[in-house]
Structure formats: C-alpha cells, structure tokens
Specification:
Largest sheet: 6 strands, mixed
Low-confidence stretches: 1-7, 370-378
Number of helices: 14
Mean pLDDT: 87
Radius of gyration: 31 Å
C-alpha cells in the first residue's frame, strides 16, 4: 500500500503511532500458534491427498509464517533505534506479512473446494477462521491491517464458493461477504475506543511534564532532559523585562497570550537540538547540547543573544503592538556537573540572570564571575 494511501489510517501523533505499532509486534504467541497449526494442517492435506497444489501451498504457508515470526523478533531487537519513518515502514511490513499469510490460507480453501475435498475444505476453513479470530485482537490497534488481510483471506474462498454449482456453497460465499462487513464495523468501533483511551493516557502523561498554558516542557521535564544530556551543554535562564506592566494594563488574558507567543519564539529559537521550558511566571529555561571549549561558549552566547533579540521584537495582543524585553543568564556545564548537583547549576544560572536584570535588562550575563556582562547585541 503506497504511503499516500496509508497516511489516512496513520495516527497524527508519532508517539501514539509508535505505541500502536509496538503493540502489533507483541503478537508472537498468536502468530506462532496459527503458523504451526496452518503448516501442520496444510502438510497433512498434502500427504493424505498427494495433491501437488496442496504441497505448493504448504510451502507458501511455511515461508510466510516463518517470515512473520522473524519480523517480530527483528522489530523487538531494533525498535529503540527506529525513526518515525521506520515505524511507518514496519507497520506496512506487518500488514504485508499478514496479508501474504492470509492469501496462503485462502488459497488452501480454494484448492480444497476446487478438487472437491470436503475434509480439506473443513480443515482449511477452520484454519482461516482461527486466523480471523487471532486478528481480532489486532483490530483495535490497526484496523486497516485486519480488514485488508481478511479481504485477501476470504476472497479465494468466496470465489471458489461462487464457482460451485451447489446453491449451499453460493449462499456460504455471500455469508462470508456479510461476515467481512460485520468485521469491518466491529473493527472501527474497537479501534476508536482503544485509540481514544490511548490518547487520554498520553494527555495525562503530557500534563505531568508540560506547562498547561504555553505547552512547553515544565520544570520536571527540564530536569529530566538535563539528567539525560551527555557531554557539554548550555543552560540559558530567561526572564521577561516589562511583562508586569503589560499584564496590569491589558489584563491577565492578554498576559497569557503574550506568554504563549514568547513560548513559540523560544521554541523556534532553540530548534530541534534542545528544549525551552517554562519554570513559572515569566521565567523560562533553555537547554542545548554544545561543543566543548571556546566553540561551545560561543554557541551558548549566540543562543542567549538570539533569544533576547527575538523577544525584543513587537508582539501583537488583539492587534495592539506590545514591546517587552528579556534578560538572560548563561551557564556552560557538562554531564559531570549534573551528576554532582543540579540545584547548584540552577542557582548559578539564576544569579547570572539577576545580575543581567540589575544591570538594566536587555543583557545576558555569564555564571562565571570573571567573565561579566554581555549586551544582547554583542
């Protein structure tokens, strides 16, 4: 299935999409069981009847069953390194594997009906229904997979039934069509309920780590990111200059809108290589990995200056231009520093921030006392 067609079935949140696909690849017991049962049933039919068609289909079932089991193990061993694009590809791979296996079982039923092997038809149909039942557990996760696979599985059986002269077979084929339609409706409802519950779980988790007003990571998320940072890093403490007069003059709603716009600018400023967090009120923190030595200090200073410049540009509050400023404290550290005391790092960068504000605002100051103040423009 092309990605443009598949995209309509993908969840827009990459985190939820990753969790859904991860759940797909926890189906090893079901996949292994139906694989063993199907190979055993197909080989038994081939041996008992001596039919070449059964033998060929048995090999097809064995190959597809083995490939599905192999893909489950491979996903589990590599999932931690997958990008969002990789996750989408593996979802497609799971669907392709399930569809290929379904086709193999469908061909087994078709062959049994074609050669008028009633015992073989019973065995093949039983395997097909067992496979469908197993897939229902996946219906709530990715319904497009079960619906595509079920259609591919049932089409050969429906075709063979319609080709038979007996009315009972034709009615049975029509009933399988209605079975697929029923499965479709059930899958849609199961999936909607499951995904809604998963979204609620992620919303609760996000509320614990993100600021409700700006959507930025909160203090707890910042500490977690800092603890996970390896190598050298820069911490930039940002405090707005002139926020309180704007808040008092235009009201709290305007103040909240201003904070959201500040958050957007800081997020754009830090980019994808770091995080901007709100610590409360009009105080923000930025964390970014940097190079070692003087090159890293230059990166940190450039980031602080850029943040101050960005926040000095006019903001629009209900079409009214508003000007504020910002002061910044800069600290350069390494993972060895976070191992000793995170609170001491924050105290140092806070002292640098307040030194910049006492100097008149619109400045950035280093936490190193011997470096002193730096104006935003350099």
């Amino acid at each position: 299935m092309p990605l443009t067609m598949l995209s309509r079935y993908l969840h827009p949140d990459p985190r939820i999409r990753r969790e859904l696909v991860g759940l797909l690849y926890t189906s090893l017991p079901q996949v292994s069981a139906i694989g063993v049962m199907s190979v055993t049933g197909a080989v038994t039919l081939a041996v008992m009847s001596g039919d070449t068609g059964y033998a060929v289909i048995s090999v097809f079932i064995l190959i597809t069953a083995a490939a599905r089991v192999y893909s489950l193990f491979r996903y589990k061993s590599r999932a931690a390194q997958f990008s969002d694009a990789d996750v989408i590809r593996w979802e497609r791979l799971y669907g392709a594997g399930a569809s290929a296996f379904g086709l193999a079982l469908g061909l087994l039923s078709y062959r049994a009906l074609q050669i008028d092997d009633d015992p073989g038809a019973w065995i093949a149909f039983g395997l097909s229904m067992s496979f469908c039942v197993g897939m229902v557990s996946r219906a709530a996760i990715r319904p497009w997979i079960i619906l595509t696979t079920a259609a591919i599985l049932l089409t050969p059986t429906i075709t063979a039934g319609l080709l038979r002269p007996e009315l009972a077979y034709k009615l049975g084929a029509v009933m399988l069509v209605f079975f697929w339609l029923t499965l479709r409706e059930a899958s849609k409802h199961l999936s909607a309920a499951f995904v809604e519950r998963l979204e609620a779980k992620h919303r609760l988790a996000r509320q614990a780590t993100h600021d409700f007003l700006t959507g930025l990571p909160n203090r707890a998320a910042f500490f977690q990111a800092l603890a996970e940072t390896r190598g050298d890093f820069a911490i930039i403490a940002i405090d707005l200059d002139g926020f309180k007069p704007v808040n008092d003059r235009h009201g709290h709603h305007a103040g909240d809108d201003l904070l959201r716009q500040v958050a957007e600018r800081l997020s754009f400023c830090i980019g994808n290589t770091g995080i901007a967090a709100r610590f409360g009120g009009d105080e923000f923190m930025m964390l970014k990995p940097i190079a070692t030595g003087e090159a890293g200090r230059a990166e940190a200073l450039a980031l602080a200056r850029q943040a101050i410049r960005d926040l000095s540009m006019p903001f629009l509050l209900t079409d009214i231009p508003v000007h504020i400023g910002a002061s910044a404290g800069i600290l350069v550290g390494s993972d060895a520093d976070t191992a000793s005391s995170t609170s001491q790092l924050l105290e140092r960068v806070d002292r640098a921030l307040y030194a910049a504000k006492r100097a008149g605002g619109g400045r950035c100051a280093w936490s190193d006392e011997d470096v002193g103040l730096e104006r935003a423009a350099g």
